[in-house]
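[job 0412] stage=complex_fold ligand=adenosine-5'-triphosphate status=START
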Amino acid sequence: MESSIGVFGGTFDPIHFGHLRIALEVLESHGLSEMRFIPSADPPHRGRPRISARQRLEMVEMAVASEPRFVVDDRELRRQGKSYTLHTLLSLREELGSAPIVMLLGSDAFRDMPGWHEPNAVLDLAHVIVMQRPDQPAPPLYRQRWTDDPGQLTRQPGGNILFHRVSQLAISASEIRRLIAQGRSPRYLIPDGLVEWIRARGYYADGEDPEAGN
Ligand code: ATP
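[job 0412] stage=complex_fold status=DONE, emitting structure tokens
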């Protein structure tokens, strides 16, 4: 059986221990060969991120540097225009052939999936693991694709959806931005190295946040 490759896309504005811990749990539970963190350069369905894609990528690189099974993938920064997941998966398919791809989505992101560009084409290209987020139940979407059998994620290149109850960590990037804007410390929510990196640059300190309150 071929081992699957994990794909974890996000704005990562900033990356936090919620992302890192659940990515490791899913990787180990499903025997994934690696987890690719793919920062979204220009996310189609939300306000403009607070800091540039290049800087968000740099934070992801610092955060995953000590874990060899975590890989940073900058393909969305190398493309022009909105960062549609469909285009990302098509380019991954070109690179990986028919290897199974498992895409991680929090239950909140999964709820938004019907509004994505060609969601069924996305689901044909990769499996999805829906990760329960605190107080965000996974909605009953795309029912015919759900499976309880983790083996399905290695037998086919894509197409199935599996629910995974990860550790419930009520950490969100918007809450971290809010803390920093209030002059409070994000320590123990993000890696230590990032605390100083963000502070030295004054990021998130001015509190003008298009996503605040979401
Ligand atoms: P924001 O608060 O700005 O919306 P976020 O914390 O949700 O940010 P993103 O970069 O938007 O971070 O998230 C990337 C992916 O990680 C999404 O699929 C999201 O649902 C998931 N995710 C983020 N934080 C958690 C968490 N604590 N538990 C489970 N999934 C999470």
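Residues 5-169 form a domain with the Rossmann fold fold (CATH 3.40.50.620).
[job 0412] exit 0
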